[in-house]
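Thread title: Can someone regenerate the structure for this chain?

I was given the following input by a collaborator and told the matching structure tokens would be attached. They weren't. Posting the sequence so someone can regenerate them.
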Amino acid sequence: MQDTIFALASGSLGCGVAVVRVSGPQAKRIAERFCGSHVAVRHASYKSIRDPHNQELIDTGLVLFFEGPASFTGEDCLEFQIHGSRAGVARLFAALQAEEGCRLAEPGEFIRRAFENDKLPLTSVEGIADLIDARTEAQRKQALSQAGGHLADQASDWRDQLLDAFSLLEAEIDFADEGEAPSAVMPQVYRILSQLEQALVQALADAERGERIRSGFRIALAGHPNAGKSSLMNTLVRRDVAIVSEHAGTTRDVIEVEFDLGGYSVIVADTAGLRATNDPVEAIGVERTRQQLHKADLVLWLEDVASASCRPETGDSAVVKLATKMDLVSDLPSWADLGVSVKSGFGIEALMALLGEKAAESLSGEPPLITNLRQKACIESAARHLQKAMSHQDQALELVAEDLRRVAGDLEALMGRIGVEDILGSIFSRFCMGK
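Best answer:
Regenerated them for you:
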């Protein structure tokens, strides 16, 4: 018989209220033993909670019981809502631990049981994990959409289309000799598969935006030494995170800071100044700068306002040419897109507005279907197998059917139904013990 598990499901102690969650076959018996009476299903009851081994009062609070499968985990579930003291929760934990077949939950074990009991597809599990980690409004909206089954519902529709095509193929393959099965079904099958391929390609086209919302819009501050990158970094994030010095080459490594800009997660990277150098440590910093330029969604190329020209070394990344130390001059150089002065504050507000516009331009819109690399890999594989199936137009129907089975396998893996045991541990370990 499966263990009954328990853990703290609320925030840090001490606090006003602590929620202790219990799930498993002993949940109902524990409710009756700790409360001394029957606990109504799906009804909050104010109870005295006692240690059943010696009847010592542990605390008073609300008790809720949810009978499986109509619960979060699909099992009998119990919640104790007690005062949020460390001592009170520790005493309740000790009494629960003493119950036969009852133990402390492992990280993510509650939500894993929900997944294993078909209460949630794996995509919704990932959405809940992202929702817990969400730091910005855009991340919250995207995670909530995923947790609510946005991708799961779409994958179910894709699977239904695939089954329609597959059933036509199988009917012709298996029953063509009986005279009642459909014949010459390939034109109809290819119409279905073409629509499905278009849907998969469209989902993949928006996958990069989903990953950017989740991980952050990346901005690199780049330029030659002493262009003012570290000073601007400190100004943008409103705290001293980078060393500012008049000596060239002070920044030797990449410094990254994440902050919320207009509801979007933005990661700003202060980089080493780009120049030829014989210093081996500075050379490593310069190489890391070049790597950041390739990773960045936007490069702010900083140049001293006194420079006669500006030649950014940014590769294919979008770039904004920024004239620094504008407090020393009255006119913006012709090569600059924008001018700023950290010393006087000139142009900082305009720069923040521009960065917000760039982030919104890249990330705004309806929440995308795909939000992480695992989902993207599953759908890319499904698209490849689907395209291969469609390439067998003049070959045996069995070859088409075999490729469609692989597409079905990819969609099942997307939902966590097959072939994902090697990644389940890493997904569920992201959660705390009470989740």
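The chain is about 45% helix and 20% strand.
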